[in-house]
Design brief:
Belongs to the class-I pyridoxal-phosphate-dependent aminotransferase family. By secondary structure, this protein is an alpha/beta fold. It contains 16 helices and 13 strands. The protein binds pyridoxal-5'-phosphate.
C-alpha cells in the first residue's frame, strides 16, 4: 500500500475527462460522441494481415527502432505526401522510430528535449498528454490561448513568451479539440522564431490525413530548415481505425533520432511486432486508404453538420480531425462540464467539455466568454443521425 506521505510527481492529475465521460456514457447508456475513437472497424486487409503474421509466428521482438520494412514504408509515405523537392531524400532507417502510439512518441520526444527548469510553450486548448510529460522531465509549460472562436495562434504572444528558459514549442495540427489547421504563414512564423532562438518543435500531426474542403495539411516535414529542429509525431491508430493497436511513429533528424532512440529503447524497447508487419503490408498494398481518408471523414462531418442545421447549437467550422465544436450558449447557462454531465445523463448524448484542455488561469478568461463542447464524428452515420435528432430537440 502507498503511504499517505507518498509524494506524487503529478499531484494535480486525476482521471482524464475522456475516461470520465466515457464511463458516464456507459452508465447512462448515452450515445458516446465524447472519446475520440472510431466506431467502425479496422480495414479488412489489415485485420487479416495481422492474423496471418501471428499465425506465421512473427511474434518476437523486432528491432527497437522499428521493423525496417515499416520504416521504409513510412519514409515513402512522408516523401510522397510532404517532400516536394525530389532531391531531398528522407533517410527512413535513421530518422524514423516506430513507437507504441503517438502517446509514447510524445513522452519520449519530451524526455529527450526537456531539462529541469526548461519552459515549453503549448497552445490552449491543448491535448492532455503534453503537460505531464514536460513536468516529469522537470520543465514547465507556458500556456498561450488560441484566439476563439477561430482558434488562431497569435504569434506576437509567442514572441513575447519566449525567454532564455524556453526550450521547445508544441504544435498540433490538425488540432484536437478545435478541428482547426495551421497554415503556411503559421509554419513560417514558427520557423522564424525557432531558428532565431534555437528552439525545438514537437509537432503532433496524428490527424494529418484528415483535412477537409480541399485544404492540405501543412506538415513540419515539408519545411526542411524547421524539420532540422523538430520531432514530428503521427499515429496509425487514427489513420487505420485501430486506436487499440497503439502504433505510432516519430520522424526527426538523425542526431535527434539517436537521442530519441536511447530513451525509446528503455521505455518499451520495441512496439508490437505483428502490428508493424501488418501496417507495413497495408501501406504497401493499399496506399489509397491514406488518400481517401479525408473524403471519408468529410462526408461524416457533413452528415452531422447537416443534421444539426435546425438545432439551437452554433456549429463551429471543422477543417480537419474527426472533431466538431458546438457552441451551446443559446441553450444553457451551465458551465461546459456541468452541461456535458447533463447532456449525458438527462439527454442521452455524451460530449467532451473544452475546459479540461485549458490551464486554470486561461480558463478563467475563457469561461466567461465561451460555452463550447466537442463532438467526435468518427461514428457510423446512423449513430450521428440519432445523436443529432436528440440534440435538435434542445
Ligand atoms: C492530438 C493527439 N495526439 C496524440 C494522441 C495519441 O495518439 P495514440 O493513440 O496513437 O497514442 C491523440 C489521441 O487521441 C490525440 O488526439
Amino acid at each position: 500500500m502507498v503511504e499517505s506521505s507518498f509524494q506524487s510527481k503529478l499531484p494535480h492529475l486525476g482521471t482524464s475527462i475522456f475516461t470520465e465521460m466515457s464511463l458516464m456514457a456507459n452508465q447512462f447508456q448515452a450515445i458516446n460522441l465524447s472519446q475520440g475513437f472510431p466506431e467502425f472497424d479496422t480495414p479488412a486487409f489489415l485485420k487479416s494481415a495481422i492474423k496471418q503474421v501471428i499465425d506465421e509466428g512473427k511474434n518476437q521482438y523486432c528491432p527497437s527502432a522499428g521493423l525496417p520494412e515499416l520504416l521504409q514504408q513510412i519514409g515513402d509515405l512522408v516523401q510522397r505526401c510532404y517532400i516536394k523537392d525530389a532531391a531531398r531524400k528522407l533517410d527512413a532507417l535513421n530518422t524514423i522510430t516506430v513507437t507504441s502510439g503517438a502517446t509514447e512518441a510524445l513522452m519520449v520526444a519530451i524526455q529527450t528535449l526537456v531539462r529541469p527548469g526548461d519552459e515549453v510553450i503549448v497552445f490552449d486548448p491543448a491535448y492532455d498528454a503534453y503537460e505531464p510529460a514536460v513536468e516529469l522531465a522537470g520543465g514547465r509549460c507556458r500556456h498561450i490561448a488560441m484566439n476563439a472562436p477561430d482558434y488562431a495562434i497569435d504569434w506576437s504572444l509567442v514572441k513575447q513568451a519566449i525567454n532564455d528558459k524556453t526550450r521547445a514549442i508544441v504544435i498540433n495540427s490538425p488540432h484536437n479539440p478545435t478541428g482547426t489547421l495551421l497554415g503556411q504563414s503559421d509554419l513560417l512564423a514558427l520557423q522564424q522564431m525557432v531558428l532565431e532562438h534555437e528552439l525545438y518543435v514537437i509537432s503532433d500531426e496524428v490527424y494529418e490525413h484528415m483535412t477537409f474542403d480541399g485544404q492540405a495539411h501543412e506538415s513540419v516535414l515539408a519545411y526542411p530548415e524547421l524539420f532540422q529542429r523538430s520531432f514530428v509525431i503521427s499515429s496509425f491508430g487514427k489513420t487505420f481505425h485501430c486506436t487499440g493497436w497503439k502504433l505510432g511513429y516519430c520522424v526527426a533528424p538523425e542526431a535527434l533520432t539517436t537521442e530519441f532512440r536511447k530513451i525509446h529503447q528503455y521505455v518499451t524497447f520495441c512496439s508490437f511486432t505483428p502490428a508493424q508487419f501488418a501496417v507495413a503490408s497495408m501501406l504497401k498494398n493499399h496506399p489509397q486508404h491514406v488518400d481517401e481518408l479525408s473524403g471519408f471523414y468529410q462526408q461524416k462531418r457533413d452528415v452531422l453538420v447537416a443534421a444539426l442545421a435546425d438545432s439551437r447549437f452554433k456549429v463551429l467550422p471543422s477543417k480537419g480531425t474527426y472533431f466538431l465544436l458546438l457552441d451551446y450558449s443559446a441553450i444553457s447557462d451551465l458551465d461546459d462540464v456541468a452541461f456535458c454531465h447533463w447532456l449525458t445523463q438527462d439527454i442521452g448524448v455524451a460530449a467532451i467539455p473544452l475546459s479540461p484542455f485549458y490551464q486554470a488561469e486561461i480558463l478563467e478568461v475563457y469561461h466567461q466568454k465561451h460555452k463550447v463542447v466537442r463532438l467526435c464524428f468518427a461514428k457510423n452515420d446512423a449513430t450521428l443521425l440519432k445523436a443529432a435528432e436528440i440534440l435538435c430537440q434542445l
